[in-house]
């Protein structure tokens, strides 16, 4: 290892690797592209993606820059249980959308975004809350991935951070721009295959070059009592529980998952999501083991930055060929998520901003495509600019996570309970976000009666999370029973204790307040909603008519959505 603590590829090698990677994906997009692009194909591949492509795309999309580095940080910080907490709860994020996803598709089989279905259920204000949260979340994800690209390039090559950001931004945009989501799915498959091959080579090579099983036996003394335990309370309270709470928030609030839910064939939803759950968990836990191995060998992160753990392990224990593979592994992981973010943002703007609002429910398909591609260009520029500034995005990530937590119960309840209306949805989300902000940023002292108030709502929030998870698989009665037991168990434990774990308290408060307000206002609503209206109001934007024998299909016709 060099004095800089990192082995660096030459500038020529780095440029050739990046040009080869993005050049290959661009060539793939040329074969996928269509001269007369279909709006529904651009956004959700006409709701007809098969098992292999949809599963690979789901896994590749969620192995993104943050999880790539954070899994290793978990292993380094929390020891034996760290990678398991990160990978297991992250995998549940995919699993627990499955039962609710089947309901969404059953009610609105031709949907493009979840916000579009919320518009059909409640109206514009609820729709825009959903759409704005998705837009902000995808923009932050895009920024994180471009930032990771710049950091990787600057660490492992003579190229600068800004050059790395620009190359990643232009590279991802180049192959996503023309065919949108369809290109994202196809390239995800190739990127995941390349990532798996690289990981299968890199992880064992690092492990054995570091000393193999012998180094684990000889260096157990480096782990403290918490790190050496699979049942570490520190790991559970600081990482496991907050991730557990975030599972449904990310599954419901993120358009990249919803987009794949609406794209896969309806009869393949279950096997797709189950397989993606296992695949994601296995890959991420494997990457987290590199952080655990770094802990065993006594590695000190360069400049105290945990994100340097994996690059340091790679540069210390891999030959130049292995470092080149590692370079492509990281570039592939962040690119697969970045192109998904661009596709998600374009679908939201095309459907929820233009079609349902600006066009008044009578969109022009050609103009929709223009909106989608312009959105991708603008989003890439914004992501590159903010990534170049190296802003601290932690506060924004926490805020968006809370917003997603605040919408989980109102969104799910809206598709099962016919008494939930627009007022209940909007008021519950806004009140949850306000109270979360107060407790998370400690705008008032969290002590005494104020602390007890938030701890009570946190106990309700914990019960809501467990109840919703049980509801998805076991039904309403069992879910209500589990939620009631959970409140009874958590309430005495939380009061006086949870105030020491502000992050967890804030997340649980968002769930508890939104569920309480939503239920209270919905019970006062005498009207009932007919769920059969959703399929009528949410339709394809292109209607493909059957071709006469030997004749081409009729030109696409705009299908106006009902208000």
Overview features:
two-stranded antiparallel sheet, disordered C terminus, 563 residues, 1% strand, mainly alpha, single chain
Describe this entry's structure for a reader.
- Helix 1 (11-32) packs antiparallel against helix 10 (181-209).
- By secondary structure, the chain is an all-alpha fold.
- Helices cover 74% and strands 1% of the residues.
- The model is unreliable at 544-563 (pLDDT under 50).
- It has 23 helices and 2 strands.
- The protein has a two-stranded antiparallel ribbon.
- The radius of gyration is 24 Å and the shape is globular.
Distance from N terminus to C terminus (CA atoms, Å) equals 63 Å
Task: State the secondary-structure class.
Answer: mainly alpha
Shape: globular
SS field, number of helical segments = 23
H/E element sequence: HHHHHHHHHHHHHHHHHHHHHHHEE
Considering DSSP H and I runs of 4 or more, what fraction of the residues is helical?
over 70%
Strand content: under 5%
Offer a concise description of the structure.
The protein has 563 residues and is an all-alpha fold.
Write the layout of secondary structure elements.
Elements: H1 11-32, H2 39-44, H3 51-62, H4 65-78, H5 82-95, H6 97-107, H7 114-121, H8 124-156, H9 161-176, H10 181-209, H11 213-218, H12 233-253, H13 255-263, H14 269-297, H15 309-317, H16 320-358, H17 365-388, H18 394-414, H19 422-440, H20 448-474, H21 476-494, H22 502-523, H23 533-537, E1 542-543, E2 557-558
């Amino acid at each position: 290892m060099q004095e800089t603590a990192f082995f660096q590829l030459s500038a020529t090698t780095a440029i050739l690797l990046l040009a080869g990677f993005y050049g290959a994906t661009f060539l793939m997009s040329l074969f996928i592209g269509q001269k007369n692009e279909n709006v529904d194909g651009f956004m959700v591949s006409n709701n007809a993606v098969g098992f292999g492509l949809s599963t690979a795309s789901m896994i590749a999309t969620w192995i993104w820059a943050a999880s790539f580095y954070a899994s290793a940080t978990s292993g380094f910080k929390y020891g034996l249980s760290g990678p398991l907490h990160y990978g297991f709860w992250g995998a549940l994020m995919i699993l627990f959308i499955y039962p609710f996803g089947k309901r969404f598709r059953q009610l609105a089989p031709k949907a493009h975004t979840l916000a579009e279905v919320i518009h059909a259920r409640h109206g514009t204000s609820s729709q825009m809350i959903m759409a704005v949260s998705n837009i902000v979340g995808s923009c932050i994800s895009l920024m994180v991935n471009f930032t990771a690209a710049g950091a990787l390039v600057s660490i492992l090559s003579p190229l600068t951070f800004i050059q790395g950001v620009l190359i990643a931004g232009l590279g991802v945009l180049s192959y996503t721009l023309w065919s949108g989501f369809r290109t994202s799915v196809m390239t995800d498959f190739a990127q995941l295959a390349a990532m798996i091959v690289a990981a299968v080579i890199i992880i064992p090579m690092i492990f054995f070059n570091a000393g193999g099983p012998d180094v684990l036996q000889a260096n157990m003394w480096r782990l403290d009592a918490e790190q050496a335990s699979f049942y570490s309370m520190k790991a559970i309270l600081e990482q496991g529980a907050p991730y557990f709470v975030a599972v449904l928030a990310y599954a419901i609030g993120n358009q990249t998952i919803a987009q794949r839910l609406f794209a896969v064939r309806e009869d393949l939803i279950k096997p797709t999501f189950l397989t993606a759950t296992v695949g994601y968990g296995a890959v991420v836990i494997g990457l987290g083991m590199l952080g655990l191995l770094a802990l065993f060998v006594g590695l000190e992160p360069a400049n105290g930055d945990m994100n340097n753990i994996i690059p340091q392990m790679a540069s210390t224990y891999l030959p130049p060929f292995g470092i080149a593979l590692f370079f492509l592994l990281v570039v592939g992981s962040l690119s697969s998520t970045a192109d998904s973010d661009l596709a998600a943002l374009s679908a939201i703007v095309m459907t929820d901003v233009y079609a349902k609002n600006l066009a008044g429910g009578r969109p022009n398909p050609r103009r929709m495509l223009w909106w989608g591609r312009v959105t991708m260009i603008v989003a890439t520029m914004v992501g590159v600019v903010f990534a170049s500034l190296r802003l601290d995005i932690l506060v924004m990530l926490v805020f968006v996570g809370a917003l997603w937590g605040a919408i989980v119960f109102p969104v799910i309840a809206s598709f099962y309970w016919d008494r939930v209306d627009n007022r209940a949805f909007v008021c519950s989300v806004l009140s949850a976000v306000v109270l979360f902000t107060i407790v998370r940023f400690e705008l008032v002292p969290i002590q005494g009666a104020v602390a007890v108030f938030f701890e009570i709502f946190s106990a309700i929030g914990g019960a809501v999370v467990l109840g919703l998870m049980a509801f998805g698989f076991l039904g309403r009665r069992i879910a209500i029973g589990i939620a009631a037991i959970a409140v009874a168990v958590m309430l005495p434990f939380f009061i006086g204790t949870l105030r020491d774990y502000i992050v967890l308290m804030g997340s649980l408060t968002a769930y508890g307040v939104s569920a309480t307000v939503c239920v209270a206002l919905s019970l006062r609503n005498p009207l009932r909603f007919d769920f059969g209206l959703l399929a009528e109001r949410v339709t394809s934007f292109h209607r493909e008519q059957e071709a006469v024998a030997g004749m081409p299909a009729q030109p696409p016709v705009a299908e106006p959505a009902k208000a």
